[in-house]
Structures are given as C-alpha cells and as structure tokens.
Description:
The chain has two domains: about 5-175, Peroxisomal Thiolase, Chain A, domain 1 (3-Layer(aba) Sandwich); about 180-325, 3-Layer(aba) Sandwich (Peroxisomal Thiolase, Chain A, domain 1). Helix content is about 35%, strand content about 25%. The radius of gyration is 19 Å and the shape is globular.
Amino acid sequence: xxxxxxxxxxxxxxxxxxxxxxxxxxxxxxxxxxxxxxxxxxxxxxxxxxxxxxxxxxxxxxxxxxxxxxxxxxxxxxxxxxxxxxxxxxxxxxxxxxxxxxxxxxxxxxxxxxxxxxxxxxxxxxxxxxxxxxxxxxxxxxxxxxxxxxxxxxxxxxxxxxxxxxxxxxxxxxxxxxxxxxxxxxxxxxxxxxxxxxxxxxxxxxxxxxxxxxxxxxxxxxxxxxxxxxxxxxxxxxxxxxxxxxxxxxxxxxxxxxxxxxxxxxxxxxxxxxxxxxxxxxxxxxxxxxxxxxxxxxxxxxxxxxxxxxxxxxxxxxxxxxxxx
Length: 325
Ligand code: COA
C-alpha cells in the first residue's frame, strides 16, 4: 500500500477577498435600462463588487494568498504548489499563479493556472487532491481569482448585471486524519453544447477591447439545473451516500432562482443549500470559496460538517465534490 492511500487531502484554511467597490442594482439602474426589481426577482442578486481599473485577477490572488498565509501561519517556503483557477487571467502568460508565487516568496512551489470557468474551484480541488496524493505534496495553495466585470459589455443589460469580482484561497494539506478531507470529486465536460448553441462564452478581443461575455440565459438556466443535479446524484450514489449524509450543499452562486428551481424540480432540500448570490453576484470559480468563508464566519458551517459542492460553467463544464471539513 502506498503512503498516499492512507492519506487524505484536508482543508486546513479558507480565506476570501472582495474588491472595495460595491455596486448595487440601483447603481446599475442609473446607467442602464434595468431595475433592482428585475435583477433581484430573476437572480436574487442585490449587489456585486467591482475591481478597480488597475486591479487584476492576480492582484486579487496575491491579497487572498497573503491573507491565508497570515491566517494559517504557514511559512511560504513550505508551500509545494500554487494552483490558480481563473477565467479572467490578467495576461495570456505568465500565469497568475507564477506572479502570486513570486509576490509571496513561495520559493519552493511550482505554480500554474487552470481554466474551467465557473466549475474551476471543483476542478482545482480535484487536480490538487490527485497531485497531493500521487506526488506526496504536503501543502498546496488553491486560489480562485476572478474579475469577470472586466469582460462584460456594460451596455448589454442581460449579462452585465449578473457578474461580480472576488477571490478565495484554500490551504490544502496531506493528512493521515482520514475522518475528514476530500472524499470524492467528479468532473464533466461537453464541448458540443457550445458548438451547436453558443450558450456561454467569451467572444475574444474586439476592436481593442479584451472581449465580452455572451450568453443564452435560458439555455444556461436549463443546463445548470440538469447537470448540477445529475452530478450530485451520481457522486452521492458512487460514494454510497444520500443527501441525508450531507450537512450543506454549496453550489456555484450564479443565480438564486436556478438553485430554487433545481431543488423543486429535482427534489433537493433547499434548506441545506447555501445561497450568497445576493451579496457577491456571480464571481465564477471564486463563488464557492466566498460562500464557504461567509458561512463559516456566521457560524452556520462548522468543523466536521460534510459538504457537497456543485457547479456548472462555460464549456460546458460541470462538477461535484464531497468534502468533510
Ligand atoms: N433589466 C431589465 N430587463 C431586462 C434585463 C435587465 N437587466 N435583461 C433582459 N431584460 C429584458 C429582455 O430584454 C426581455 O425583454 P422583452 O420581453 O421585451 O424582449 C425580458 O427582460 C425577458 O428576457 P429573458 O432573456 O427572456 O429573461 P429571463 O426571464 O430568461 O431571465 C436571466 C434572464 C439571464 C436572468 C435568466 O435567463 C438566467 O438567470 N439565466 C442564467 C444566467 C446565468 O446564471 N449565467 C451564468 C451561469 S455560470
């Protein structure tokens, strides 16, 4: 038996960071033909944070990395790897992860970015968990850093009201305590959905701008319900668990109405679903760590709780994971 078979990847710390600027639905109604009532009733969003013009994904990542270092007391030289999930990297290269590594002085770490859109946090958990257990890495920083508000068309009222910026960080450690940690992850992709029906994408650079997010809202709504619910059902069944074994479902926070409809149509208990959409809007892969940190801070989620994460994003990609804190 390899050592890694008796080890678990555990969450040893969670930090989050939000840019300073708060923009409410009423603020948006000053610049667009929209209203708080329209946005709130269709999405549950009340406000979002917007990064400054000179504040990019790696800047958010550096702040949240420093926060988790000070929170957990880890020495940066002990970090083996930095994995950053971002859909909105500052530049094509170098990666956000390399910049963060340099800024925090994690001299022994290797560093790279992944892009799995709004499912990137769960993809990052899965990649981290596999690498830790196969390579024997002891400390990995998994960071999610997103600045989607830099990639929306601020004249397109259908998309621009939905997104916000933010970052999360997890310190993952390899532990012999097998009563907690990452129990399972399941990842899925279907690029054909995008080929035949441009559901959710970035349209690439346009006339000197970095390009915009385009979306077929109703298709995203439908696929989010179908795929998040089926992946949760599959991961529970593969682990011989039922929803009764789960304390909290923490889904990607795209839209409160998607989550309410999913619970109603697919028979998931809404009272177990964490919803923070009202505070942050859709922060892509940062949304689950932001929600998790908020729920720990308000005392709802505690050490020992069993969590079910689920998310869907552009690709399409989707994923679920079961983790015991
Ligand atoms: N304010 C006011 N009116 C708006 C508006 C806004 N921000 N955006 C669109 N509208 C209008 C439309 O122009 C349309 O008007 P019309 O009937 O006169 O043509 C009307 O509202 C309804 O538009 P529609 O697109 O049918 O709305 P909808 O009920 O499908 O809701 C979404 C739109 C985007 C809220 C909904 O489809 C959704 O939540 N989809 C999922 C989006 C998502 O979560 N994406 C990210 C996933 S990672």
